[in-house]
Design a protein that fits this description.
heterodimer, A: 115 residues, mainly beta, B: mainly beta, 11 strands
Chain lengths: 115, 109
C-alpha cells in the first residue's frame, strides 16, 4: 500500500533562518507530488507541484523553493524565512482516478511557526 | 470571483439533525468534484467523490448541479464525530486541483 511521510511534524524558526521540509512517498512510482500551505483558519494554497524528477512548477511567487531529487522525494526549502511563512505545510501525492480526476492523499503535515 | 467558493460557517447543529452545505465553482468545464474532511490541526482526507448522478455513502449524500455549477453535501443523523471542516475540491483540468476554503461544522450534544 502507498504511504506518505512528512517531517518534521512541528518546528519553530526565527525570521531569516533557513527551512527544509521533506516528504517521501512509498509504494508507488512516478507520482505527481504537491506542496500546499494552509494559514491559520484559511484554505489550502498550492505552492508547488511536480510531475517527475527535477520537474517543478511554482504556483505562487515567494521566497520558497522546491526540489525533487528522487522520484519519491519532494523537498520544500527557504533560504530566509519571513513571518508570513508561518502555516501548516502539507505534502500530497495523487492518484488519477479517471479523466481529469486527481484524488489527493496528504501527509500528516508540518506545522511551522516563524518568530 | 473565486474558482471555488464555500460558506465558511460555522454550522452549529444538534446531534441527530440533518445538515447540508453547498460549494460553487466558476469553471463550467470542470470534470471532477470531491468532498474532503479536515479535522482540527490534521491533514485533509478524502470523504467522497461526487458523481454526476449523485451518490450516497451511508449518512452522506453528494450531489452535482452542473447547470447552476455547485455541488452539495448532505449529512443525515449527524454525530458528534462529524464535527470537522469540509473542503470542496474541483478538478477544472488534469493536474489542476482547486480547494475551497472549507465549511466548519460543529455538532452539539
Amino acid at each position: 500500500s502507498q504511504t506518505i511521510h512528512q517531517w518534521p511534524a512541528t518546528l519553530v524558526q526565527p525570521v531569516g533562518s533557513p527551512l527544509s521540509l521533506e516528504c517521501t512517498v512509498e509504494g508507488t512510482s512516478n507520482p505527481n507530488l504537491y506542496w500546499y500551505r494552509q494559514a491559520a483558519g484559511r484554505g489550502l494554497q498550492l505552492l508547488f507541484y511536480s510531475v517527475g524528477i527535477g520537474q517543478i512548477s511554482s504556483e505562487v511567487p515567494q521566497n520558497l523553493s522546491a526540489s525533487r531529487p528522487q522520484d519519491r522525494q519532494f523537498i520544500l526549502s527557504s533560504k530566509k524565512l519571513l513571518l508570513s511563512d508561518s502555516g501548516f505545510y502539507l505534502c500530497a501525492w495523487d492518484v488519477v482516478a479517471g479523466p481529469g480526476a486527481n484524488v489527493l492523499t496528504f501527509g500528516a503535515g508540518s506545522r511551522l511557526t516563524v518568530l | 470571483r473565486k474558482e471555488v467558493e464555500q460558506d465558511p460557517g460555522p454550522f452549529n447543529v444538534p446531534e441527530g439533525a440533518t445538515v447540508a452545505f453547498n460549494c460553487t465553482y466558476s469553471n463550467s468545464a470542470s470534470q471532477s468534484f470531491f468532498w474532503y474532511r479536515q479535522d482540527c490541526r490534521k491533514e485533509p482526507k478524502l470523504l467522497m467523490s461526487v458523481y454526476s448522478s449523485g451518490n450516497e455513502d451511508g449518512r452522506f449524500t453528494a450531489q452535482l448541479n452542473r447547470a447552476s455549477q455547485y455541488i452539495s453535501l448532505l449529512i443525515r443523523d449527524s454525530k458528534l464525530s462529524d464535527s470537522a471542516t469540509y473542503l470542496c475540491v474541483v478538478n477544472p483540468s488534469a493536474s489542476k486541483i482547486i480547494f475551497g476554503s472549507g465549511t466548519r461544522l460543529s455538532i452539539r450534544p
